[in-house]
Amino acid sequence: MKKTLLRGGSVVSEGEMKPRDVLIGTNGIIEAIQPLIQDHKDADIVDVSGKLLFPLLIDCHVHFREPGMEEKATMQTEAAAALSGGVGLVCDMPNTIPPCVTIAALADKVRRAEKISGCTLKFFFGVTEAIHLVTLKDLWTGTSLELKRLKNHCCGVKLYLDHSTGDQKVDGGIVEEIFRTCAELKIPLVAHCEDSEMNEKALQENVASPQTIDLHSKNRSPESEATSIEYAISLARKTGAAFHVAHLSTKQGIELVRAAKKEKLPVTCEVAPHHLFLTTDDYVTLGTFGKMNPPLRSSEHRDALWAGIIDGTVDCIATDHAPHTIAEKESGEPLKAPSGVPGVETMLSLLLSVASGKWPNENSKTKKTNAKISYHDILRLCFTNPNRIFSLGASSLAVKNPARIAIIDPMQEWLIEGKSLHSKCGWTPFEGWKVSGKVARTIA
User: Fold this and answer.
1) Considering only Cβ atoms within 10 Å of each terminal Cβ, which end of the chain, N or C, has fewer?
2) Is 320 annotated in the active site?
3) Domain 3-47 is in which class?
């Protein structure tokens, strides 16, 4: 077996991008990163001229559907989608069947994930009632080798402050106790923030309106998200828990997180590609394939998310990759279609398009934004920050680290088509979009 020499690429690292050769040993460890590495007779030389070299990225919010919903997706199919999109580590949510709220359920997920090569899976633990909180404490403080092993595969706690896929809404009476426990044990805490009472009230008020898909965004209003985020931030302030807002989608939410950061609270947030690239205008062409929770917003909210990326308010971009079958999305009344869209394979190319100055999809119903993003921003948002926030231990592109590298052609233009993607669901909300930048190869 020979060493591998990546010749002529540009290594993207914190604050810089420089032409570098990368030498990988026979054991898969990076031996050297230098401007020019002399030829080795024991190395296979791979010409990566004109290519970008990133560490395999992180998607800190996915739903790979296994166990219990394998008709939608499996760990194997969605891990393949992730790797194809340059993502080598994902954080899977607990709303599976059974939900990941017990030691046995977590152990089963870990066992299944051990069969996956190339893409690392970590798992969030769910808490919906008091007994789950007891179990969480056991997991985090247990001294047995098995509990320690399982804890290493757990990246934090996920709360649903309103119902979404899987009906995992937390019992409101224990929310503050969950925040206190996470603060005491230093467990990252992520929440899906929507106010259940406001959502239910809107649902009743709109029951007489035409039940078209655009009503979904009115039934789950920006004010609902903001109210829930404000409540959760107040608990972070009160308890000291490290709190992360999942798939933030509104201008008000960005303002609340920006204020929390100025207050030096341990508050972070993520935004999803579908909220960055789609708006309520896209319901016309997407129909139920544009239904997710939280829902699509107006361009005003979309632009606020991009502004939050530019000024550093947004810490991560994560896909909330949530596949459903085409049949599920097309059956029945629009508002009863399941919420969720796939995205792990298309995230990087969408962001690379913006980095190259080309807004993807010239034919989108959504007005273009003046958003700008750099390759370094992509690294920060899709690797460095999620790696730090959730203590994931992913390998950066550095000497003595395992070689986990995405080799990217930033100039390659291609058309996104669901039938050509790896996700089992076979569709994408970005169908027919022209993007610039594609993963040429991954080393994992």
Assistant:
1) N
2) yes
3) mainly beta
